[in-house]
Write a structure and sequence with these properties.
Length: 306
């Protein structure tokens, strides 16, 4: 005797004039769009319930197809891109530097750190990156501006989502990081002087004011932008005297070449020739017109954007 396999069904109202008395509910078998996973509800709700926004009218010049060295090549116009990225505002990209972290663990950690006023919608993507959609703009600004954030002693990088984002990249190019100047001579403990010294490492974001008052002894602590794709500044010459720079929570630093992302025994630059550093205008990666404001015990850059 064959075993009967039950199916989930629902009956139509008798008033409906149909040729079938029942239909199979296949809703549970339908794939969930990636936007629905991120936003936590139907994309129809996110895009104001308009079905027309899901239908893209392709105009002349919107799509270009060709071959480059025998490889199929397709490009889309800016108009198409703007349609595709609707609803991605207030979406941040998160990545924990130095180690992997599970979805639930990260979700609990950021809720405890940021204490958002509304629900966050998070989705994990490849290479340890996560997308987080904020419903409240103030919550989004807090996560973006009030860093740097650390989890398990590692930096949690937060950056706005853009079309240029590439999850294949091992880590973000520019991050905020705490640095220290150990043994800085006491006569240099002046807010403006320390700021000028810190700018030699990277664009200053925050200055720990306790160091300016010598409450913690003779070392200076500040937050600067660090470009992880370039050589890290390990020392500064102040009036001819060598001053070492110490980076907090950046554990994977090669002490041979000065780069982040590997250790010295795995350095691929060990047999390379001498490296000549080209001076790069900081405006390429750091926003202009950044003003410093004093808030509590730290001096903060109110216009921080990674």
């Amino acid at each position: 005797m064959e075993q009967l396999i039950p199916k989930k069904v629902r009956f139509r109202d008798k008033e409906e004039d149909t040729s079938n008395d029942m239909m199979i509910d296949l809703s549970s078998d339908q794939p969930t769009p990636w936007r629905d996973k991120l936003f936590g509800h139907s994309s129809k709700d996110v895009f104001n319930g308009s079905e027309e926004k899901k239908v893209i009218d392709i105009l002349e010049g919107d799509i270009q197809k060709t071959f480059v060295n025998g490889v199929p090549f397709i490009t889309f116009s800016n108009r198409i891109h703007q349609i595709l990225i609707q609803g991605m505002d207030n979406t941040m990209i998160l990545k924990l530097l130095g180690c992997n972290i599970g979805f639930s663990v990260l979700q609990n950690k950021i809720h405890n750190m940021w204490k958002p006023s509304t629900r966050l919608h998070m989705m994990d993507i490849e290479n340890g990156y996560f997308l987080v959609k904020f419903q409240n703009k103030l919550d989004c600004k807090k996560a973006l501006f009030e860093g740097p954030w650390t989890i398990f002693g590692q930096y949690l990088t937060v950056q706005p989502w853009t079309l240029a984002f590439d999850p294949a990249q091992a880590f973000p190019s520019v991050v905020m990081a705490w640095i220290r100047f150990l043994g800085l001579p006491g006569y240099l403990y002046n807010c403006k002087i320390i700021t000028e010294i810190g700018e030699m490492v990277g664009k200053l974001v925050k200055l720990d004011m306790n160091t300016d008052s010598r409450a913690k002894g003779r070392f200076t602590r500040m937050v600067v932008y660090v470009n992880l794709e370039k050589l890290l500044v390990s020392q500064i010459l102040i009036n001819g005297r060598s001053q070492k720079v110490e980076y907090e929570s950046l554990s994977t630093i090669c002490f041979h070449c000065g780069r982040y992302g590997h250790v010295d025994n795995l350095c691929t630059f060990r047999n390379s020739g001498p490296t000549v550093e080209k001076k790069v205008d900081s405006s390429e990666t750091i926003p202009k017109n950044q003003n410093m404001v004093v808030e509590g015990s730290v001096k903060k850059d109110k216009n921080y954007k990674p």
